[in-house]
Amino acid sequence: MELYEKIRKEWLEGDLNRDKDLVDPPEVKRYNDIPYGPVEKWNLLDLYVPKDDARSPLPVIVSIHGGGYVYGTKEIYQHYGMNLAKGGFAFINFNYRLAPESPFPAALEDCVKVMTWLYENAGKYDLDTENVFMVGDSAGAHYTSLYLCAYCNPSYADLIGIKSEKRVKIKACALNCGVYDPLKLRFEDGLDDFVTYLMGDDWREKSDKYLCAHNYLTKDYPPVYLMSGLNDYLLHQFEPMKKRIDEFGIELRSKVYGDEEPDKAYHVFHVDMNNRFQKECNDNELLFFKEHIK
User: Which residue has the higher pLDDT, 287 or 188?
Assistant: First the structure.
């Protein structure tokens, strides 16, 4: 069994166990398995909306899930997404093509398709394309950071060959427990295997050119909520990204969670609805987004 196949099996077992006692909140309506592109298995999204929210149209959160580039589906993020939808947002939770079968920039191409779907279907679902927010964690935070580089920096969009959907107005983002500079990963954890799946054996030669978000930030980047946890194995990526965001004068709110119980502030703790810090973190990010609704 290949390493990525082993990861898919073991991580899925862990995530299903994490969520085994969770149920859909009654305050949320869900639309499942909506096609947004031509690839039947992977180009599907779910949409969660609050049932009794009086706002019309609804501001939107678009989520890019994590999973080391090789793992993950929208089903693993459904409870996290519905939890944020309760806060007064429509939440788009989508599958995307995974590495190594679909290497970079396939996931970003799928993200563009999702944004186009959002624009073209906003009227049907009462969605506000003028107030769109993005969240991503781990590899999904990396993808989110790179998508926003393409959104704000035409030279990067041209480099990777994608055209971001400018008709959707992204007002802010939350980057959670993410990778932002793969060359600075701590490879004793085996993390280089994941980037190899993403880019191929020569990924180190390509990393600064294609994968380092630090290199393509601009002053036009949307406001950022940047977070990590004291027991996050990607915590070392937090401060360098924070420094680069500050250097460009981008609006930033940042926090490392876990002062009281560091062991509970593990990697992507915010998607675990049983974690003691998830509510504080997710509430803070929703508040940050609400401050940027216009």
Answer: 287
Helices (H), the chain: 3-18, 78-85, 106-125, 139-152, 154-160, 192-199, 203-210, 238-247, 278-290
Q: Per DSSP, what are the bridge partners of residue 94? A: 45
Q: What is the DSSP letter of 269?
A: G
**pLDDT tens track for 46-95:** 999 999 877 899 999 999 999 999 999 999 999 999 999 999 999 999 99
User: How big is the CA angle at 189 (ends 8 and 224), to the nearest 5 degrees?
Assistant: 80
How are the residues of the chain apportioned to helix, strand and coil, as percentages rounded to the nearest 5?
45, 20, 35
Residue 188 has pLDDT above 70, yes or no: no
Question: What is the pTM for the complete model shown?
Answer: 0.97
Q: Which CATH class is domain 3-290?
A: alpha beta
Q: Residue 246 burial (CB < 10 Å; 0-12/13-18/19+)?
A: exposed
Domain boundaries, the chain: 3-290
| Angstrom distance (rounded) from CA 79 to CA 18 | 11
Tokens at 278, concatenated: 């998830």
For the stretch 208-254, pLDDT in tens is 999 999 999 999 999 999 999 999 999 999 999 999 999 999 999 99
Asked whether 44 and 118 are in contact (CB, 8 A), the reply is no
Whole-number Å distance between alpha carbons of 60 and 48: 10
Which SS3 state, helix, strand or coil, does residue 235 take? helix
Cβ atoms 129, 168 nearer than 8 A:
yes
